[in-house]
Design brief:
The protein is mainly α. It has one domain. It is about 70% helix and about 0% strand. The protein is built from 13 helices and no strands. The longest helix has 26 residues.
Length: about 260
Amino acid sequence: MKVLGFQRHDVRLTLNLFKRRLRERYLGSMLGLAWAVLQPVLLLGLYTFVFGFIFNPSKLPNATVSLTFVIWLIAGFVPYLALSEGLMQTASSVISGAGLVKNIVFKTEIMPIASTLLAAVPFAVGMSFLMVLLILQKNYPTWHAIFLAPVVLLQFAFLAGLGLFLGATAVFVRDVVQVLPTVSLIILFGTPIFYPVERLPHPVLQKLTLFNPFYQMIYPYRAILVDHTLPDPKGQLYLAGVTAILFLTGLWYFRRLKGYFEMAL
């Protein structure tokens, strides 16, 4: 049975490529794969310290203590952390696997998809960190948490679609990998992550932000885990439509270019 040209054995190959890239990333370091956990924990711990103890930004409605803002911030930062990691890993997926592309016959389009899974590592660590903070605040998850599953699936499908474009383009335009850290920063500060959407200076900007797929990707975590409400269904339907178009066109784009990879690598 084929789905979009993929077969069952492609799923196994995708998982194997994910494990291979995960090992390669931390190969040679003293702590090895432990860095996959330590890096996001240290980063999130730093944000907690800075915003929980150094600053006291009562910028949110009902934010009576610093921990309230920290939890709100981390709930938006964790999906961004996965997004940023996914962008970097998918963009370099084909380049870093040049040996496989040249010597093994397989569906190379699974390379950016496998690299998307690398974002699941900081995401899982970050969500665990967030859960600890929520428990400390006695803000326990409610039945709304079951809607996290489609939210997470949408985010990683969006990342996979974007990764197909980035992975294929980077083979021919290496600048793509170099410019992505700057793009990630633009997404970080251009999307309401450190500030509520209501803080934008004009109502028009607030409305335009609703069409930002990165915002629609991030705010459901705050709605579900912090506010215990359901995300706007219209926003999620919009994100689902964008994701479907992005993945299908990304797959078509990648398959059009992959015949020229060997010459460019």
